[in-house]
Amino acid sequence: xxxxxxxxxxxxxxxxxxxSIIKELEFDTYYEPFLGSGAIxxxxxxxxxxxxxxxxxxxxxxxxxxxxxxxxxxxYEKQWSKLQEIGHTYFYEVRDRxxxxxxxxxxxxxxxxxxxxxxxxxxxxxxxxxxxxxxxGMNPQKFASIVDQWNQLLKEYKISVxxxxxxxxxxxxxxxxxxxxxxxxxxxxxxxxxxxxxxFKYLGELNxxxxxxxxxxxxxxxxxxxxxxxxKELYKRHLKVHSGLSAFKKVQDKQKDNVHESLxxxx
Length: 267
Ligand SMILES: C[S@@+](CC[C@H](N)C(=O)[O-])C[C@H]1O[C@@H](n2cnc3c(N)ncnc32)[C@H](O)[C@@H]1O
Description:
Layout: H1 15-22, E1 30-32, H2 39-44, E2 49-53, H3 56-67, H4 69-86, H5 88-101, H6 104-113, H7 140-154, E3 158-161, H8 164-167, E4 176-179, H9 196-208, E5 212-221, E6 237-245, H10 247-253, E7 258-265
Parallel strand pairs: 1-2, 1-4, 2-3, 4-5
Antiparallel strand pairs: 5-7, 6-7
S-adenosylmethionine (SAM) binds next to loops.
């Protein structure tokens, strides 16, 4: 299933591999506390899910897709048409408005029309990517059909905003948690960064409670090593998943750069 929003760090290119591993398990509730655009959720389509992210405008958008898809579709169509009529000044008008009001529907529009769909913030937390001039943004009809599919899927899921530790407090050994935190060396792609020690402690606690996790953690490309080793006692298996070409490298240097990401499993 295609994502309704573009999101930096999306696991879309690895979704089939990651989901094939999760599908081998029997579980009750699926937890995804670093939701982003939900690439794994959309591929897995579990019966029961508790999903969340710390970024409030994003979670508000997920809830609107669940509760009021019609208004999301209408708003996108209206904004998309204005961009075609007015041109680039409209994009920057929406960007300024979003940085003041944090309207989730503006976030959606910006993600679909900014350069390579990269969601980026400056040090003051302001969205700062530019308009993708050579692309028109997804056609509203296609967008509407994607929103309808997600709306069907989300009906029974609980979607909330918050820190990963808080949201997964209710998980038990019958459940599975997919974790996809931001890269630890990530300075400007997300508003929030993760503290290593706190994250390792959290994984240790999951192990103590026998709660299974699948973790996308670090990665390396031909030109850059993002690896930050995970302490060996925290996991049982370490797999490498090919995730395609680095979007940043493509944008910045117009070069091809293959990326592999790590997947750690505690079962
Ligand atoms: C790598 S992205 C997830 C991408 C997602 N798997 C996808 O396919 O689009 C990491 C996400 O973690 C969120 N995040 C950062 N710190 C967090 C925290 N402490 N608790 C929960 N979510 C957090 C960010 O807002 C971001 O959406």
